[in-house]
Task: inverse folding
């Protein structure tokens, strides 16, 4: 998926700017963006919503055996982040060691390189998180 | 017309060709990666005496980008800080220029990545600039022209680099990483840019061919005929055109390839070296190339008071210098609480050993 320009391009708003969706009917927030509100169904009205990038660590793990393309970064912290607006997402927590991370620790979004499609391919950028303090 | 000529007003305007009025800095931001390597740790690998190199360059350590950082990611971080500091809507940015000699792509703009990440697209113009270490200050001049001619409301000028030095080359001790971003506009200024002047010649002091991983340089030739000639002449040129002297400015920022050149340039120009202090960052973070003079200016603005004057002169190999006279406005105090002081990034650091540094900079062919 990372090798395809169109699929990478389509996700630029969510990856660069944390743009998800919100349902105007039930006020539920979603990330990544959804086309239909699973609660309101056809009564729902989805609109784009940019999240602040402020949140906390919901849970985390240290990745020692990374997937292909991330070998050089191991070991790294992968976390479930709870955004202050509610949605959860998965992201790396960088600029820290495992011992610095704890459940509930405040984090903020940063812009980093996620992966490269080889030396001649595209460079994919997006969100990661750092500890706020 | 005749009336204007007689009153001298037309002539006055004509002499201001290089001096644009009421354009300035609406907000600024910087970024320096968290990792550092000490000059001694590099020297040890190459059998050099660390303390001698540290002393001769006036640099004790340099910043190193993380594995997932490049000129684009650092440009975004500094630009986000600048937008927050300025308190403007990213949609009001009409032009965005990124100056760098380490753009992640040879073809595909860094500026579009930054514009998208800021939420400034699609109603703007954007481009990448390259002029060794001075492309960022040239971006400021481009924005000044577009703002003062009312083509755009705000322009964003960024200097960002993850510079590389060939292993064991003198450059390896200083080539570092960082980014500085300045939002140029006419209203709600934190500092007014009173004037700018540039001095440019074809001087082959430093270069990198497209396929080369590391730059080449002319050793001592990078000094007198390159750095000093351009920095001194650009600064003198601005002083002559704007009729001010070394004593009229409170702070001075020069491009800083090492910790010593800016001090020597100050001495040549009769400037008190103490005026360099807040903006002389190379001893702590190395030479951040396109970001060097811009981060120096950001650090100086962090401590400057309303009414004070700052002189900034950049230098880019190849070669040229852009000199600026800047007056801090009352607006700076109001926006202070919104800024991320550069000292936050400078003080937050973690040291790497040379082995880790080689991995981080991907200097091994197998990486």
Result:
């Amino acid at each position: 998926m990372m090798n395809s320009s169109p699929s990478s391009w389509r996700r630029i708003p969510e990856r660069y700017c944390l743009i998800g969706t919100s349902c105007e009917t039930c006020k539920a927030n979603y990330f990544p963006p959804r086309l239909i509100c699973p609660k309101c169904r056809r009564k729902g009205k989805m609109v784009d919503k940019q999240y602040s990038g402020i949140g906390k660590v919901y849970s985390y793990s240290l990745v020692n055996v990374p997937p292909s393309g991330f070998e050089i970064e191991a070991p790294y912290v992968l976390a479930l982040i709870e955004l202050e607006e509610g949605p959860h997402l998965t992201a790396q927590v960088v600029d820290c060691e495992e011992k610095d991370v704890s459940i509930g620790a405040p984090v903020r979004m940063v812009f980093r390189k996620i992966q490269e499609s080889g030396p001649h391919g595209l460079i994919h950028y997006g969100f990661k998180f750092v500890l706020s303090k | 017309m005749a009336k204007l000529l007689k009153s001298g007003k037309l002539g006055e305007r004509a002499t201001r060709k290089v001096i644009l009025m009421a354009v300035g800095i609406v907000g600024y931001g910087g970024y320096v990666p968290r990792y550092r390597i000490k000059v001694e740790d590099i020297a040890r690998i190459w059998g050099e005496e660390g303390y001698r190199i540290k002393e001769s360059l006036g640099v004790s350590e340099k910043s190193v980008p993380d594995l997932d950082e490049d000129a684009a990611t650092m440009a975004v971080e500094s630009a986000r800080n600048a937008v927050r500091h300025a308190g403007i809507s990213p949609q009001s940015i009409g032009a965005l220029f990124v100056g760098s000699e380490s753009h992640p792509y040879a073809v595909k703009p860094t500026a579009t990545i930054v514009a998208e990440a800021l939420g400034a697209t699609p109603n703007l113009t954007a481009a990448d600039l390259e002029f060794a270490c001075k492309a960022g200050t040239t971006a400021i001049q481009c924005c000044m022209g577009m703002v003062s001619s009312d083509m755009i409301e705000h322009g964003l000028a960024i200097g960002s680099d993850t510079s590389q030095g060939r292993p064991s080359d003198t450059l390896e001790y200083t080539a570092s990483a960082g980014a500085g971003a300045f939002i140029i506009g006419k209203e709600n200024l934190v500092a007014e840019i009173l004037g700018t002047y540039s001095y440019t010649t074809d001087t082959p002091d430093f270069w990198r061919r497209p396929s080369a991983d590391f730059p080449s340089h002319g050793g001592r030739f990078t000094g007198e005929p390159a750095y000093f000639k351009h920095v001194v002449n650009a600064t003198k040129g601005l002083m002559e055109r704007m009729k001010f002297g070394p004593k009229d400015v409170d702070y001075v920022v020069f491009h800083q390839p090492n910790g010593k050149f800016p001090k020597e340039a100050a001495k040549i120009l009769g400037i008190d070296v103490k005026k360099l202090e807040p903006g002389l960052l190379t001893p702590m973070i190395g030479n951040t190339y396109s970001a060097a003079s811009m981060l120096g200016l950001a650090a100086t603005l962090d401590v400057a008071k309303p009414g004070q004057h700052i002189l900034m002169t950049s230098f880019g190999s190849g070669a040229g210098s852009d000199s600026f006279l800047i007056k801090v406005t009352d607006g700076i105090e109001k926006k202070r609480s919104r800024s991320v002081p550069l000292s936050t990034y400078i003080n937050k650091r973690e040291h790497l050993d040379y082995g880790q540094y080689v991995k981080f900079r991907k200097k091994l062919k197998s990486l």
